Sequence to fold (124 residues):
Amino acid sequence: MRPDIYLVGLGMRGAWQVTREVEDALRRCRRVFAGVPVPSMVRFLRKRARTVVDLQHLYAVGAARSSTYEAMAEAVIAGARATPPVAYVTYGHPLVGTTPSQIILERGPRLGLKVAALPGISSI
Fold:
């Protein structure tokens, strides 16, 4: 199965914990949506992906986090519907404590999108 959306975990120590499987997926993606608030990780992604979309601008002062997470998930889903495959990248494991990933995992398949999670090392 070739996913339309990869949910990618970068581990807790950045580039030291990125798997070869993750690097391969990043190279295949047309766009990588970065949900990581670490500039060095965004630079790391830009060396491996065609196009990186930094989602940090969606955090607004005074806005509810739930609205921000919805906007992040919707950006990724829209990207996958337009030009798959894409990736949503977060630190840690993409399914541990990451609300945008959970939204994508729930909504993507209902829209006919194939979603796959690639492991990362969580803080747990």
In short: The mean pLDDT is 91.
